[in-house]
Write a structure and sequence with these properties.
206 residues; 71% helix; 0% strand
Length: 206
């Protein structure tokens, strides 16, 4: 489906604004009555919610962030076209990382990036999700799962050109992996120096 430029622009703006919404901040306020940005790492994402509030709020946060990367890119890729689907995926990821509503200080794009990957290549995205879950649960270090999972996923797509559904996905996955690594640069430094602490999860407050 060919859309006029103005319609594509509206879709991208709406996707960015949707990505700028922060389930983590909302859930912390409604569930725990505090500003998540002033607690723990200050990062408005699933890991900080998990450390601060427990599993259930973290799962709700993850689902919300995942949907930001999944819903619009999937619908656009399916009904408009895959190229536009990739553009909306970029808009969603940028919205999460640089949210308008949080003064451009957002999360690290793991859940939203994963949602985009599942939207654009469900089978591959599911494999990435399984890897992230296994590494996070076995090591209790979420950042380790993120900084190894996204680059590994991109590498597989590049090395096996028959695997991705189109030629745009491998470079998109590479760029996303680089972006995720950049957002986790402080975590990478702590991993290298052995200072990244395993996850300690408190009991949910409700």
């Amino acid at each position: 489906m060919d859309l006029p430029v103005w319609a594509c622009a509206i879709i991208l703006v709406v996707t960015y604004l949707t990505g700028s919404l922060s389930p983590a901040v909302w859930i912390a306020r409604a569930w725990g009555g505090f500003d998540l940005r002033r607690v723990g790492s200050g990062n408005p994402g699933t890991t900080n919610v998990l450390r601060s509030m427990g599993w259930l709020p973290a799962v709700l946060t993850f689902v919300g962030d995942f949907c930001k990367g999944f819903v619009i890119p999937f619908l656009v890729a399916t009904f408009v076209g895959r190229q536009m689907g990739y553009l909306t995926a970029v808009a969603a990821i940028l919205g999460h990382a640089f949210p308008l509503f949080l003064r451009f200080r957002g999360g690290k794009c793991v859940a939203t990036g994963l949602g985009a990957m599942v939207a654009l290549f469900p089978a591959g995205g599911a494999c990435l999700a399984a890897y992230l879950l296994i590494i996070a649960l076995s090591t209790r270090i979420v950042s380790l799962a993120a900084v190894t999972g996204f680059p590994l996923y991109a590498l597989v797509l590049v090395l096996i050109p028959s695997l991705p559904p189109d030629g745009i996905l491998p470079p998109f996955a590479v760029i996303t992996a680089i972006f995720v690594l950049w957002r986790h640069r402080s975590n990478i430094l702590r991993l290298i120096t052995g200072q990244e602490k395993p996850m300690h999860v408190p009991k949910s407050k409700k």
